[in-house]
Amino acid sequence: MATKKKSIIIIFIFCFHFAYSQKDYPQNYFRSPVDIPIFLSGNFGEIRASHFHSGIDIKTQGIVGKYIYAAAEGYVSRIKISPSGYGNALYITHPNGLLTVYGHLKSFNDTIAKYVLAQHYAKKKFAMNLFPSSDKFPVSKGQIIGYSGNSGFSGGPHLHFEIRDSKTENPLNPLLFNFEIKDDISPKLYDLYIYPQNSHSFVDNQNYSKKIALTGKKGEYKLKNEKTFEVYGEIGFGLKTYDFLNGSHNRCGAYSVKVFVDNNLIYFHELTEFSFSETSYIKSFIDYFEKEKNSSKVQKNFVEPNNKLSIYNHLINRGVYEFVDDTIHLVSFEVKDAYNNISTLSFNIKSGFPETIKADEKMNDYVMAMPFQIQNTYENEGIKILIPKNTLFDNLFFEYSAYDLPLNQYSKIHNVHNKFTPLNKAFTISIKSDKIPKKYYEKSVIATFDENYSITGSIGGTVKDNFISAKSVQFGSFAIAIDTVVPEIKPLNITDGKNISKSKNIKFRISDDLSGIKSYIGYIDEKWVLFRYDAKTQTIFYNFSDDKIDKGLQHKLVLFVIDNKNNKASFEANFTW
């Protein structure tokens, strides 16, 4: 890369604006969905494991069963019951073109609950997605619609509350709708990250990213070590930051971040709205290596070429600055929450060509270069890899290796790049299956392994043309394994012949060691009964309140659990209730 005298070459200018960014949010249309003070354990746009948080999490004082109210008049347009996700959730469509969502409920009000239970038994399944007609369940503002709970993938009792655009289904930031939530605390800044963008870019003579601790309070931050760092070439910045609201110690997400170089704005994102179709782009928004290696959530304040997130309001050259002169530059950040509490960070950085260079030696070890815009393939006698176009967020120097494992006689273990590189969507991996006995073809899976080559799970797999193939959304280590083991059924409150007349339910823990649970089905007295499933605790339970069996009699229970390779476990017991 030729040295340039100017401090910056503007390659691209991207400006993105949401439809709602130019509109006023209705400030008094919605009431609180709870009748207790609102304290939050999570806010809109907060970085979660694989997505932006699409609503606010309202604390329910550590308990379940709090009344949940319709935030405005409308009608119940959707009822979703899931063992994961939002668990028991209601969706209400409002006349103003908005929709509210109420997730992780314990139960619905009596009218809705009766309808849902009938649907469970009519369809003979637990997970459901129902779309009642607009005249089925009209609601008025402040009407009780359900009770707070901990269903689905919830880390504790709370209400997940969303506001969406009814037409696009895009979630909107509820903190912009004037709910009575107190917040006078500025975001907290913890660490700055500096990222060389290519092999010709350096930070303190090194071609590696650099982490720098920050210090400060009351919204004013600086580098803990106030040395002036030296950079050269194309450089991006990142920040580890959290927001906190009054009355809560939970770490929430910042609303917006701006980055300036010499007082010129080069990066600005703001979390007012996003699309669920953009979920996978969060892997590029964050420092994925830090997340996977250190469980640290760092926001990259520059945009990789294949990151199509729509939260970016202003970008110059994707937020990447080219330092090619010989001078000192002022870099500053402005981090804001939804209530206009602001924190700032400013520091000097020296631009200049490094005298000594420590480059990334791994750059010489790659197998092939893979452009993100095209379909990429890699193949040898033991493996085929197909990476669809736009699966990568940036061009990739692809790495591959394979080893024999003493305890795995079905294939080598294949190290497909590394788990620290994020993917926008799934790629296909096919491993040669000529070592699998034919009787085990239908029981074979592609297993995943950790750094110690212990099995961590599987991505499934089907056998065709002497290969077993499956899709994965993450690079890593893979090998063929065989699943002939039936799922485990562990009764938690029932044994054969037991009198459980004082119990509210029959409960089991179910699990599978490799391919995962595909289905389960339970019968009492040869009649199908509803066993609800809580995926986070791996428990299923039948509630006697369903009123499907007679009290004071002896009954027979039969339960079947099937994994994804059709290994079936069963449990039988006679009981009195």
What topology does this entry show?
Elements: E1 13-14, E2 40-42, E3 56-59, E4 67-69, E5 74-81, E6 88-93, E7 98-108, H1 110-123, E8 128-130, E9 138-139, E10 144-148, E11 158-165, E12 171-172, E13 188-196, E14 202-203, E15 210-217, E16 220-223, E17 229-242, E18 256-261, E19 264-270, H2 282-285, H3 288-294, E20 299-300, E21 312-316, E22 321-323, E23 328-336, E24 342-351, E25 368-370, E26 376-380, E27 383-387, E28 396-398, E29 400-403, E30 413-416, E31 427-432, E32 444-449, E33 455-458, E34 462-464, E35 467-472, E36 476-482, E37 488-491, E38 498-499, E39 505-511, E40 517-524, E41 527-529, E42 532-534, E43 539-543, E44 554-563, E45 568-576
Parallel strand pairs: 16-24, 17-24, 38-45
Antiparallel strand pairs: 1-21, 2-3, 3-11, 4-10, 5-6, 5-8, 5-9, 6-7, 7-10, 7-11, 11-12, 13-15, 13-17, 14-17, 15-16, 17-20, 17-22, 18-19, 18-23, 19-21, 23-24, 25-28, 26-27, 27-31, 29-30, 30-36, 31-35, 32-33, 32-36, 34-35, 37-39, 39-43, 40-41, 40-44, 42-43, 44-45
Would you write up a description of this structure?
By secondary structure, the protein is mostly beta strands. Strands 2, 3, 4, 5, 6, 7, 8, 9, 10, 11 and 12 form an eleven-stranded antiparallel sheet that branches. The longest helix is centred in the N-terminal third of the chain and has 14 residues, at 110-123. The termini are far apart. Mean pLDDT is 93; it is low at 1-22.
Annotation keywords:
3 helices; 5-stranded mixed barrel; flat; mainly beta
Number of helices: 3
- Model regions low in confidence, pLDDT < 50 over at least 5 residues: 1-22
Beta-strand percentage range = 35-45%
Category by helix and strand content:
mainly beta
Question: How would you describe the shape?
Answer: flat
Radius of gyration: 27 Å
End-to-end gap: 79 Å
How would a crystallographer describe the biggest sheet? 11 strands, antiparallel
Count of β-strands: 45
Q: Helicity range of the residues?
A: under 10%
Give the overall pLDDT as a whole number.
93
